[in-house]
Amino acid sequence: MENRAYKRVPGNIKIRYYLWKPLFWKNLYVGNIKNLSEKGMFISTKTIYFPLDSLLEISIPFKKKALCLPAKINNV
Questions:
Q1: Would you say residue 51 has pLDDT above 60?
Q2: Which of 24, 39, 40, 50 could form a disulfide with 54 if both were Cys (CB 3.0 to 4.6 A apart)?
Q3: What is the phi/psi pair of residue 71, to 5°?
Q4: Residue 43: exposed, middle, or buried by beta-carbon count in 10 A (0-12, 13-18, 19+)?
Q5: Selection from 9, 18, 6, 12 nearest residue 70 by Cα
Q6: Which residues make Cβ contacts (< 8 Å) with residue 37, sequence separation at least 6?
Q7: CB atoms < 10 A from the CB of 11, how many?
């Protein structure tokens, strides 16, 4: 039985996200949001490893625009 503080909602949303690196440059990656909750989301990606506390900017398509959100990698 899973014991989470917030309910997870399943999904399959294609996104782009950027990993911030030192000196303000960033790398572009793609993935899918597989589930999300009030406090987080699980992103499925072919990129295997990001260090804890890495800063991301997530771009979620919404109508003809994109919703951009800051994010941080946390321990699962």
A1: yes
A2: 50
A3: -150, 165
A4: buried
A5: 18
A6: 4, 6, 7, 8, 9
A7: 12
- Sequence-distant (6+) residues with CB within 8 A of 24 are none
pLDDT given at position 14: 93
pLDDT tens-digit map of 7-33: 889 999 999 988 877 666 678 889 999
Residue 35: strand pairing partners: 10, 42
Which structure tokens are listed for 69? 């959100």
Length in residues, the chain: 76
Q: pLDDT value at position 5?
A: 75
CA nearest 56: which of 13, 16, 6?
Answer: 16
CA distance 23 to 52: 19
